[in-house]
């Protein structure tokens, strides 16, 4: 069974909907990262209210570093891009209910989207940091911001490590 780990970084739109800015897949079965995509905004930032822009500015500064106008892929291609990225897998692991719901909207038929929190995956910020010499997304290598590519890999490494560990029956 082919599986991958997906993380998504988002902002909020004019109707308080989630707007996907960055999406990344990691699969140890296919030698690592399978794609990181940064999406252009679905509409002009001027459509957002001042309060919405302020909230997104906070998310940009303190969470992921991605601005509303960042991106290379037009937002209208979002569904097709997600289907293309997910089509080679039977199961996609995500962290969190919001990300689960978002991916379920776009997942191809037959692809199971699963919340890894159900397996006990801890908060991402508690997982070991990864050090990389090259990072292809719009984040700085030395950034403290969240990155979908690194988060997907951290989830995958956590899963592989915990799945491979024998269950000790000596501690009851």
**SSE succession:** EEEHHEHEH
Q: What is the rounded distance between the termini?
A: 32 Å
Number of strands: 5
Overall number of structural domains: 1
Nearest-angstrom radius of gyration? 17 Å
Mean pLDDT: 85
**CATH-assigned fold name:** Nucleotidyltransferase, domain 5
CATH class: Alpha Beta
* Fraction in beta strands: 15-25%
Which structural category fits the helices and strands?
alpha/beta
Note the total helix count: 4
Query: Residue ranges: pLDDT <50 for 5 or more in a row?
Result: none
Q: What oligomerization state is this entry in? A: single chain
Using the 3D structure, state the CATH architecture.
Answer: 2-Layer Sandwich
Q: What is the helix fraction of residues, given as a range?
A: 25-40%
Shape: globular
Order of strands across the widest beta sheet?
Answer: 3-2-1-4-5
Summarize the main sheet: 5 strands, mixed
- The CATH superfamily is identified as Ribonuclease H-like superfamily/Ribonuclease H
């Amino acid at each position: 069974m082919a599986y991958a780990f997906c993380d998504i970084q988002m902002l909020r739109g004019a109707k308080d909907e989630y707007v996907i800015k960055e999406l990344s897949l990691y699969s140890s079965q296919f030698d690592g990262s399978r794609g990181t995509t940064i999406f252009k905004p679905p509409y002009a930032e001027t459509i957002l209210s001042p309060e919405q822009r302020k909230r997104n500015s906070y998310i940009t500064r303190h969470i992921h570093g991605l601005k509303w106008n960042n991106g290379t892929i037009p937002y209208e291609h979002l569904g097709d891009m997600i289907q293309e990225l997910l089509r080679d897998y039977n199961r996609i692991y995500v962290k969190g209910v919001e990300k689960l719901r978002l991916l379920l909207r776009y997942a191809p038929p037959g692809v199971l989207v699963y919340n890894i929190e159900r397996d006990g995956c801890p908060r991402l910020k508690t997982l070991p940091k990864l050090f990389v010499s090259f990072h292809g997304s719009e984040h700085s290598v030395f950034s403290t911001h969240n990155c979908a590519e690194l988060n997907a890999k951290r989830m995958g490494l956590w899963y592989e490590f915990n799945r491979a560990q024998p269950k000790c029956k000596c501690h009851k």
